[in-house]
Specification:
Distance between the termini: 19 Å
Radius of gyration: 18 Å
Low-confidence stretches: 106-112
Shape: elongated
Largest sheet: 3 strands, antiparallel
Number of helices: 3
Strand content: 25-35%
Order of helices and strands: EEHEHHEE
Number of domains: 1
Strand order of the largest sheet: 2-1-3
Oligomer: single chain
Structural class: alpha+beta
Mean pLDDT: 81
Length: about 110
């Protein structure tokens, strides 16, 4: 199983075409410069309290109340997507009449 990448900065930014997306980085200043140069607006990035996965960072953004307007919609959509991905490989173990039974759940809606 591959290790998930960790990020220290997360937030949202609006592309020049008007699409607001969740953004992740490890250097706040460099990421703001890159987004500005690309023509992005409404750049709202925050430093995370510790390195986090995308799922954890999105949950942290929601806990900060970053749920207003397009930015909130972008965070909620990305959070739902990452939650589905996390559950895709989930393994459930149940005990029935003294025998252990493992069940692997696969979410077919996110598979290509």
């Amino acid at each position: 199983m591959k290790a998930e990448k960790l990020f220290t900065v997360a937030g949202t930014a609006t592309n020049p075409n008007g699409t607001t997306k969740a953004r992740f980085a490890n250097d706040l200043v460099a990421r703001i410069k890159i987004l500005s140069k690309a023509g992005c607006t409404n750049i709202d990035l925050v430093e995370l309290p510790q390195a986090m996965t995308k799922l954890q960072a999105l949950q942290y953004l929601q806990s900060l109340g970053k749920t207003q307007g397009d930015a909130g919609f972008a965070v909620a959509n990305k959070l739902a997507e990452k939650s589905r991905e996390a559950k895709k490989g989930e393994v459930r173990v149940t005990l029935s009449k003294g025998k252990a039974k493992a069940e692997v759940k696969v979410d077919s809606t996110t598979q290509a």
